[in-house]
Amino acid sequence: MRVGYLMLVAIWTWGCVSTHTERMTDVNPEGWARQEPATVVWNNEDTVSLRDIQLFVRYDGRAANQRLTFDMEVITPDTLSYSEPLTVYLPENKRNGECVIPYRKDALLNRKGVYVFRISTAASGVKGVEAVGINVAPAE
């Protein structure tokens, strides 16, 4: 009986282990300004595995059916910085108004330490975006 209980607990907790790392941060839904970047921090320990990186955008009806351009800046642990625009289309509110956009496929984060993702809007006063974030997962 006791062994069966321990096996049940082990199986149950195994489902809680995830190799995905999601980080989100809130932005001002009443008017997200370009000067207010959302900062998402991710600590990298694995320097050899390939990763898929996705951008998450949580939004309400005011941002639905819009094409928005974000500036994505990545700062590596050795302080190298890379910035680029990322244009996304936010579809009609489905799944609680959350959109997942592929950012990098098969990315190699070859430095141990903290990676900083700064996400800002290319336009000022974007209404309806509530939160943005990233997901870093093993490459599929």
Describe the structure in your own words:
There is one protein chain. This protein has a single domain, classed as PHR domain (Jelly Rolls, Sandwich). The protein is mostly beta strands. It has a 4-stranded antiparallel beta sheet with strand order 1-8-3-6, with no helix packed on it. A 4-stranded antiparallel beta sheet has the order 2-7-4-5, with no helix packed on it. A hairpin with a 5-residue loop joins strand 4 and strand 5 (81-90). The chain has one helix spanning 2-14, and strands at 21-26, 38-44, 50-59, 66-75, 81-90, 98-108, 113-121, 129-138. The model is unreliable at 4-19 (pLDDT under 50). The longest helix has 13 residues, at 2-14. The N and C termini lie far apart (39 Å).
Short description:
This protein has 140 residues and is mainly beta. The chain has one helix spanning 2-14; strands spanning 21-26, 38-44, 50-59, 66-75, 81-90, 98-108, 113-121, 129-138.
Spell out the blueprint of helices and strands:
Blueprint: H1 2-14, E1 21-26, E2 38-44, E3 50-59, E4 66-75, E5 81-90, E6 98-108, E7 113-121, E8 129-138
Antiparallel strand pairs: 1-8, 2-7, 3-6, 3-8, 4-5, 4-7
What does the main sheet amount to? 4 strands, antiparallel
Q: List the domain count as a whole number.
A: 1
SSE string, helices as H and strands as E: HEEEEEEEE
Radius of gyration (CA) equals 18 Å
Query: What is the fourth-level CATH superfamily?
Result: PHR domain
CATH topology: Jelly Rolls
Tell me the strand percentage band: over 45%
The low-pLDDT segments are 4-19
